[in-house]
Amino acid sequence: MKRQLFTDDHDAFRETVRTFLAKEVTPYYEQWEKDGIVSRDAWRAAGRQGLLGLAVPAEYGGGGESDFRYSAVLAEEFTRAGAAGLAIGLHNDIVGPYLTSLATDEQKHRWLPGFCSGETITAIAMTEPGAGSDLQGIRTSAEDRGDHWILNGSKTFISNGILADLVIVVARTTPEGGAHGLSLLVVERGMEGFERGRNLDKIGQKSQDTAELFFRDVRVPKENLLGELNGAFVHLMTNLAQERMGIAIAGIAGAEHLLEITTRYVKEREAFGRPLAKLQHIRFEIAEMATECAVTRTFLDRCIADHSDGTLDAVHASMAKWWATELQKRVADRCLQLHGGYGYMTEYRVAKAFTDGRIQTIYGGTTEIMKEIIGRSLLG
User: Fold this and answer.
1) CA-to-CA distance for 46 and 369, rounded, in angstroms?
2) What is the 3-state secondary structure (H, E, C) of 133-168?
3) Which 3 state secondary structure label does DSSP give 182?
4) What is the pLDDT of residue 286?
């Protein structure tokens, strides 16, 4: 089915993204995987190409484009290229909205130009060793000292944790406030007491630096409070739908790409004197995956369109995230199986996609949390 979602402008942007990936990412990606981190040069190249800060107003160096379909193009093409390490989606679609919607004019002038140029790499720090999806369990705290906060605590599994120059930290500013006693504090590289732990050793997405962060009596100026005091819960809930959409888009794009690769493989690979594609079981496997991808794509495109119009709600974003990422996981497993022993070899794309994509059902809210959100909306 021909997709109806994109215009000629989006198609032209897709070609720009593909050219950027071919020139600035793919030739270096294997080395980044070995290093466990991408080059800062790639971030600056993305800034020069206009891929950073798509929704940031032009006065700060951004694209001034609120149409989420451009972000969808980026997510699809980076997924097809297997380039999860360069976490532009995190930067643009997760951190970006906090800065554009919550920052004061002074903060915008201070942070957004570097955000758009690639000189300032960003991260958001919510998860702690003892608190994941449950925000009420957050123990990182900030004590009011008049003209500044004293921040103490730790975070883990923070994407861009090693490279980040600016980290939005979720901290408890009112001890007795529960989930409504949390605030967003912006911690910047070089602040005394802000330390990074090890670059965590993951089973996939090796070039995406994921780190532990430690805050020991970090003096955070009052000017670095982002949004309302004790308003982090509302701010986080407002922006989670877009985060989940970005993950869902990568999920369906990953599943579709694996299906393309595997379809070609079974046509070429022979067993028992004939191509695998001639075996009925193989045809049924391909038919099932193709149908599931087509149905999911239709729903995702509708969600993308609704989000671009500002009408997508948290429930449908949760449905999209749950369904697309679980589909990606199933397709990756089935496609690896159809590759046989070769599917287990790291030089085959299906093996890397299997490990890179496994995190999709976990971060941004686990599948179980998505089901809880949906269930509560229906049953109260």
Assistant:
1) 33
2) CCHHHCCCEEEECCCEEEEEEEEEEEECCCCCCEEE
3) strand
4) 98
Query: Quick one: which H or E segment has residue 187?
Result: strand 182-188
Catalytic residue, chosen from 243, 270, 347, 368, is 243
Left (φ > 0), alpha (ψ -120 to 50) or beta: where does 215 sit?
A: beta
Please tell me the distance from the alpha carbon of residue 322 to that of residue 314, in angstroms, as a whole number. Answer: 12
Tokens 């290229």 belong to residue: 81
Report the range of poorest mean pLDDT among 89-93, 132-136, 236-240: 132-136
Are 361 and 332 contacting, i.e. CB atoms less than 8 angstroms apart?
no
d(CA 158, CA 128): 9
At 355-370, the pLDDT tens digits run 999 999 999 999 999 9
Active site residue 243: yes
Instruction: Compute the distance between CA of residue 143 and CA of residue 92 in angstroms, rounded to an integer.
Output: 30
Q: Does the reported pTM lie above 0.85?
A: yes
257 membership: H or E segment, kind and range: helix 232-268
Concatenated DSSP letters for 118-137? TSS-EEEE--BTTBSS-GGG
Sign for the pseudo-dihedral over CA of 114, 115, 116, 119: positive
- Confidence band of 1 (pLDDT split at 50, 70, 90): confident
- Who's near 338: CB < 8 A, 6+ residues apart? 262, 265, 266, 276, 282, 285
